[in-house]
Design a protein that fits this description.
DUF1272 domain-containing protein; 2 helices; Herpes Virus-1; DUF1272; alpha+beta; 3 strands
């Protein structure tokens, strides 16, 4: 199950699990759309491809909440 990280690792923008606009690599590194574009859709941590992260909504989000651990170190 995806960790659904709450923020962009590069700029700190909030990325709610129930909204689009987040991009992840296969290691779940997470970036906002603007940062993913600036990174040419390539993860700076592992070199992997950044792809649209699916959303999690409704009952599934309540039963399996998103992570609250922020990753931005800015």
């Amino acid at each position: 199950m995806l960790e659904m990280r709450p923020d962009c690792e590069r700029c700190g923008t909030d990325l709610p699990a129930d909204a689009g606009g987040a991009f992840i690599c296969s290691f779940e590194c997470t970036f906002c759309a603007a940062c993913a574009d600036a990174l040419d859709e390539t993860c700076p941590n592992c070199g992997g491809e950044l792809l649209d992260r699916p959303t999690r909504t409704g009952d599934r989000l309540r039963r399996h909440p998103a992570s609250t651990e922020r990753r931005h170190r800015g």
